[in-house]
Amino acid sequence: MDRHRHDRSGLCALPADRTVTTSPPRDVGSLSLPLGLLVAAIALTYLPSLGSSFQFDDWNVIVRDPRVQSLAAWLAAMPGIRPLLKLSYALNHELGSGARGFRAVNVGVHALNSLLVATLLRSLGLRLALAPRAAGFAAVVAATVFALHPVQTEAVTYVSGRSTSLSTLFALVAFAAWLRGLDAPDERRWRWISLAIFALALGVKEAPIALPLVMAAWLVVSGAARSIPRRLAPHGALLLGLALIVIAWPPYRDLLTASLGARPTGLNLLTQVNAIVYLLGQLGRLEGMNADPGLGVVAAPDAALWLRATALLALAVAGVWLLRRGHAAGFAIVWFFAWLLPTNSLVPRIDVVNDRQLYAALIGPAWLLGLALAPLVAARPQLALVGLAVLGAVLGVATVRHNRVYETEISFWEDVARKSPRNARAANNLGYAYALACRDAEAMREFRRGMVLRPDDYRAPSNLRLLSEGALFTDNARHCPGPAPHPSP
User: What are phi and psi of 472, to 5 degrees?
Assistant: First the structure.
């Protein structure tokens, strides 16, 4: 059977022998031009937002955290949680370029990730017997969606989202090195290179613990499931070591204990059903992205929730079924669920859901779209290219529009408050942003609204009292034209 033969749907299966293929042929056409255009599109989309202000968690983990203000401060604070992420913040502070410099690094990381997505997926497509043109087109479609979809702004424009994008960068490089080893006579050396890069990914954020599951899924889809113990032993050992650190080291153990105490495990799993359904809805949404959706915790399941849970389970089972039969679509589906596991899992999170959880997971659905459109490039190549250009333009414009939300703290929280009018945190934070801008009457209105939305939260009433007394800020925290008014609460 021809390795490059594929069915009419473009969702191909492996040959009957189901063995790991050798290295893909090199004469399959260059991706240089489409990837160059993609990088240019990323620049046009994200560079206008470089001058936006710091937002939300940025103030606590970047601007005011003394441990990341310089390389010396970072070194003195070690050992610590997420050391490589904090090192990247310290390096940015050393450069002294403010929010613009931090955001420029984020855009650069995202561009590198987009290039990796394209090259990795083309390689995977060729290994799964797609025709070269189909494999390349499917990969470019997926990379375009990954690069320009507005849901990615939370991992790019939101500076604190770097934890997600930077850890994904190391994880993708680790996966690429491991794949290279499968075809190399010195596989063991590549395996150890992959392990070292995997360790770097975990030094940025814990979410890449999903990578060994993705590797196992690849061995299954490529017909080499029996080699999983041997080929994943080092990565599994590293995860075991990380688990021991989490249990033994007080900073991690305290964080884990606090997370597990947030809500019962059963209710958390049911809550995550709604979270995953929400994220699936974001895939088709180009407007209305919400940086703080405030999705509620499930108090008791109902029929609609069980229906959603059944649908998600059916999708996951379908992915595994296709995976075991060597279909690229199965790997794409399993990829999506695997990358959501660390954030939508047994361990509760303070925030039920946010868009950056989709950052790496989006690669799976994006590749599914590329695989579905791949037959078009052979039948109607000009139409395929026009469609790809239109797709990129539509996504890019939507992302530019959404990036405007990040211009100031006021625009950021006004957007959240408009989309989530029952979000008490948004009301309090918008009030604080108004107060910082000397708009005290509007600030007090929002503080009062926050008190109504969540009477048990101390922050809004405390801020309201302090603002009315003129004590919310230090003398130099804000600069109002003349004496700032302090309306009575």
Answer: -70, -30
Residue carrying structure tokens 């709604």? 274
304, 290 contact by CB (below 8 A): no
Look at residue 487 and tell me whether its pLDDT is greater than 90.
no
- Domain positions in the chain: 32-404, 421-468
- CA dist., res. 171 & res. 147, Å (int): 17
Determine whether 94 is exposed, middle or buried from the number of CB atoms within 10 Å of its CB (0-12, 13-18, 19+): middle
Taking the alpha carbons at both ends of the chain, their separation in whole angstroms is 78
Residues of the chain with pLDDT > 90: what percent? 67
Burial letters 130-169, b for 16+ CB under 10 A, else e: bbbbbbbbbbbbbbbbbbbbbbbbbbbbbbbbbbbbbbbb
**Coil, strand, or helix at residue 266?**
helix
Phi, psi (rounded to 5 degrees) for 127: -65, -25
For 216, left (φ over 0), alpha (ψ -120 to 50), or beta?
Answer: alpha
- Omega before 48 within 30 of 0, i.e. cis: no
For residues 181 and 397, what is the distance between their CA atoms, to the nearest angstrom?
Answer: 40
What are the angstrom distances between the C-alpha of 362 and each of 46, 272, 283, 356, 405? 19, 17, 8, 10, 22
Q: Sorting pLDDT into bands at 50, 70 and 90, what band is 21? A: very low
DSSP, residue by residue, 152-175: GHHHHTSGGGHHHHHHHHHHHHHH
Q: Is the dihedral of CA 315, 321, 326, 327 positive or negative?
A: negative
Range of lowest pLDDT (11-20, 38-47, 144-153, 185-194): 11-20
> Average per-residue pLDDT in the chain?
88
Asked whether the beta carbons of 62 and 102 are under 8 A apart, the reply is yes
Per-residue pLDDT tens digits for 385-422: 999 999 999 999 999 999 999 999 999 999 999 999 99
Q: Indicate the burial class of 27 (C-beta count within 10 angstroms; 0-12, 13-18, 19 or more).
A: exposed
**CA–CA distances in Å: residue 389 to residues 115, 392, 408:** 17, 5, 31
Residue 275 sits at φ, ψ, to 5 deg, of -65, -45
pTM of model > 0.90: no
Which of 221, 222, 225 has its CA nearest to residue 324? 221
